[in-house]
């Protein structure tokens, strides 16, 4: 029998390490540190995205769609092979950056993710294959595979054009776009729809047809938001704007359709889970509105010139929308025991650090003063993140998980 709560703890462990690395990066602006900043950034981002979010999502997907004994050996082989690749990246990126061994481990991770996508799509029980929730999960996994074209392209670009080429950055943005806006979002939507299906709260699929078309069209076209910094032909601005508008329309449709289901669902989940999902919904709205603004040439160039805006957006999506939704779903699945005080420590650290990052970008843009102890304060506030995640991890290790939302199915 697989103890998936332990797999959740492993994911939280990666999140804790990524958060510690994030605080360490803040210290570079406070004092002299004998380390390579860029190398640590690589480790921080890889462990955050591939350790915490990827492992968290795949653990949830296995929990919901597979029984403990369904293809257990195959899943475990893929899971532990993935851990080897993640630990390899953790112990090579901070010291070498993109070099032989870190490239080997990151390449092996891509291969592991292909096996995971194949496993879920091919081995899922027949009863789930026609559900709307699994339709989202399957699409998210295809987007996961599509996103990997970015890392594969980086090697070729570096070998031929070098890392100063615009194609180097575009390859990175391609990867990040289909991770953040497709794989993560669609997987979380699929898990949400799963909970609705199991409580017979799911809207009719015909009601979601336009949502599905708008969302996927928006995902594809909004990739062009990632290339506007090169000031391309006007057609790319038009496509980027269309993609952002389609995503905005998609989520307007989503909230309209699920409103009746939400009224029933919120009476069946814990108050903390309700809070997490409401916060996540608010952050989702902020995200799609920011995307729409970034389609305008002025704001696109602004984001390129002042990288704090991009960092703030990425952190806001990762630490806010993605992670908070994951907390809610892991708890609803009985894999996480989260307390309200610990969540508030996390949320304060997230919210205040976001405010400080966006203030710095705005300050540089508008010539506003940056107070003397800004970076010390940013370090202190950012420290709340590893503190809260560490407390979540310890609580989850020593406390028995609560009753799952779907006790009879899970």
Automatic annotation (TrEMBL):
Keywords (A to Z) from UniProt: Membrane, Transmembrane, Transmembrane helix
Transcription keyword on record: no
Keyword Magnesium recorded: no
Ranges that cross the membrane: 12-33, 39-62, 74-93, 99-121, 141-161, 173-196, 208-228, 234-255, 275-293, 313-336, 343-368, 374-394
Protein name: Cytochrome C and Quinol oxidase polypeptide I
Organism: Salinimicrobium flavum
Organism classification: Bacteria, Pseudomonadati, Bacteroidota, Flavobacteriia, Flavobacteriales
């Amino acid at each position: 029998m697989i103890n998936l709560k332990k797999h959740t703890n492993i994911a939280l462990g990666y999140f804790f390490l990524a958060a510690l690395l994030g605080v360490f990066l803040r210290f570079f602006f406070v004092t002299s540190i004998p380390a390579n900043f860029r190398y640590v950034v690589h480790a921080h981002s890889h462990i955050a995205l591939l350790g915490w979010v990827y492992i968290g999502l795949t653990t949830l997907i296995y929990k919901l769609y597979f029984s403990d004994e369904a293809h257990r050996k195959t899943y475990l082989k893929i899971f532990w092979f993935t851990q080897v690749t993640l630990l390899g990246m953790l112990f090579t990126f901070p010291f070498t950056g993109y070099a032989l061994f870190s490239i080997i481990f990151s390449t092996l991770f891509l291969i592991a993710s292909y096996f995971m996508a194949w496993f879920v799509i091919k081995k899922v029980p027949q009863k789930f294959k026609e559900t709307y929730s699994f339709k989202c999960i399957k699409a998210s996994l295809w987007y996961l595979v599509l996103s990997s074209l970015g890392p594969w392209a980086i090697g070729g670009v570096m070998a031929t054009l070098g890392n100063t080429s615009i194609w180097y950055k575009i390859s990175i943005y391609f990867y990040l776009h289909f991770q953040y806006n497709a794989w993560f979002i669609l997987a979380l939507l699929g898990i949400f729809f799963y909970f609705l299906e199991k409580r017979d709260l799911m809207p009719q699929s015909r009601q979601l047809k336009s949502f599905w078309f708008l969302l996927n069209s928006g995902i594809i076209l909004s990739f062009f938001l990632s290339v506007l910094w090169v000031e391309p032909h006007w057609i790319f601005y038009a496509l980027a704007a269309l993609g952002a508008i389609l995503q905005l329309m998609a989520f307007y449709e989503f909230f309209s359709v699920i409103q009746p289901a939400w009224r029933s669902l919120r009476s069946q989940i814990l108050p903390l889970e309700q809070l997490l999902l409401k916060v996540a919904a608010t952050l989702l709205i902020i995200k799609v509105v920011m995307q729409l603004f970034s389609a305008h040439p002025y704001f696109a160039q602004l984001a390129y010139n002042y990288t704090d805006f991009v960092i703030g957006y990425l952190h806001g999506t990762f630490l806010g929308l993605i992670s908070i939704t994951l907390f809610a779903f892991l708890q609803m699945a009985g894999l996480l025991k989260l307390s309200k005080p610990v969540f508030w420590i996390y949320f304060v650290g997230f919210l205040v650090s976001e405010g400080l990052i966006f203030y710095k970008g705005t300050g540089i843009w508008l010539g506003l003063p940056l107070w003397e102890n800004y970076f010390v304060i940013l370090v202190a506030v950012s420290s709340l993140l590893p503190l809260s995640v560490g407390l979540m991890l310890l609580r989850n290790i020593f406390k028995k998980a609560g009753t799952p939302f779907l006790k009879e199915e899970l």
